[in-house]
Amino acid sequence: MTTASVSADGDPRRLLSDVRALTRQVRLDQRVTWLALLVLATVTLVGIPFDWYGMSVRCLPDGSCEFSRRGVLYYWPAALLLAYTTIAVCYVRAARARGLGSRVLPYAITGAVTTVVFTAAWVAAALYFPSHPLPQQPLPYWWLLLDRLLTPWSMIGIALLVLARLERNLALGLFTVGYLATVLLVLPMNDGWGPPHWGIRAGLAVPQLVTGVVLLLGAVGFAAARRRHR
């Protein structure tokens, strides 16, 4: 970004308007929102095979089944930490290329903290419930909502709210609210698990696929908006 001094002819109102316009331009130049969403979308979509093949399903002769989602713990903690590191580095490089500072560190810290919270919750669940029996009846709505909240893709949304606040990016804030609403409220809850093995895996992979596509579409939209701005 290049800057040039512009005379305000001693008019305080014009000077204030110029300062506000320059401040807004700096904020816009600091944003690499599309890249953050692209990285997070990639991490989410790549995680599907890890969860699919890392899930063990065991069905008994009486027709009852148990499953364990260890693939989530094998993939997501490292993947999220790598993703937030990548995003922070890209933000800093983009800002320095324009001669600007970057305030992305609180976002990276928030991402790391939410990753630790998610990992701790899943490790505790794995210790207390080594395998999860498939429920014979639909689970309570509050239980399903809590389960959704502690997923990696919900943690992504919480960290994105912090990024939107740091950037003072209303568009990203609205997108993130819609994203979290999709993850927590819009995606269908499991009213029954369907046939074992493939049905169980698909029932848990579909919400992850949808959230990954939403993030990817968000990346495309913010990239297009940035090109129009330029």
Automatic annotation (TrEMBL):
Keyword field contains Transmembrane: yes
Transmembrane segments: 32-53, 73-92, 104-129, 141-163, 170-190, 202-225
Organism listed in the record: Micromonospora andamanensis
Protein name: DUF998 domain-containing protein
Ubl conjugation listed as a keyword: no
Keywords tagged on the record: Membrane, Transmembrane, Transmembrane helix
